[in-house]
Design goal:
Layout: E1 9-14, H1 25-40, E2 44-51, E3 55-62, H2 68-90, E4 115-118, H3 122-138, H4 153-158
Antiparallel strand pairs: 1-3, 1-4, 2-3
Helix pairs in contact: 1-2
Length: 168
């Protein structure tokens, strides 16, 4: 079977209705853990990320023969499953805000049509990398990109990619 080569992708997923569902650190950790799961399955290379309170930005690259949209679907479904389980247990009053009108699910956490843009050249890659890392600064969450702990900015500053999540 022929190996498919994918370009890195700038991926953005937004919480439905821009609710601040990811405000609690435990939900940001779920996002990062789901990325680690995809890496362990040898499906992804992650170059950058930033998990905000109501959206996420990632630069990733799909590996192997799996389709990019399938990896994206698995990732978002995994995040939703774990967040839903925690909400049911610890914050059931939040669940009604995410009630789905779709017949195939009870809750809908992510806004439809997450954005994916292939990064065909280094200049665009660098532009998106800077955008991701400066997102928390622009939102007023920190003064410098590397201060925000749910971003890959500090790994780039320190040139330290030993966390098992990022590939330079």
């Amino acid at each position: 079977m022929e190996k498919i080569i994918y370009y890195p992708v700038f991926f953005t997923a937004t919480i439905r209705h821009w609710k601040r569902l990811l405000k609690l650190d435990k939900y940001k950790e779920i996002i990062l853990e789901q990325l680690r799961e995809q890496i362990k399955k040898n499906q992804l290379i992650v170059y950058a990320y930033c998990v905000m309170d109501n959206h996420i930005h990632i630069i990733w690259q799909v590996k192997g023969i799996i389709d990019t949209s399938e990896v994206q679907k698995q990732f978002l479904e995994g995040c939703s499953k774990h967040i839903k389980a925690d909400l049911e247990l610890h914050h059931p009053n939040v669940l009604p805000f995410f009630k789905s009108s779709q017949k195939d699910r009870s809750y809908h956490f992510w806004k439809r049509c997450a954005k994916s843009k292939e990064l065909y050249d280094d200049d665009i890659f660098e532009q998106k990398l800077d955008y991701i890392h400066h997102n928390p600064v622009k939102a007023g969450l920190c003064n410098l990109p590397e201060e925000y702990i749910y971003s890959s900015a500090r790994y780039y500053l320190e040139n330290n990619f030993s966390d098992g999540l990022l590939t330079h």
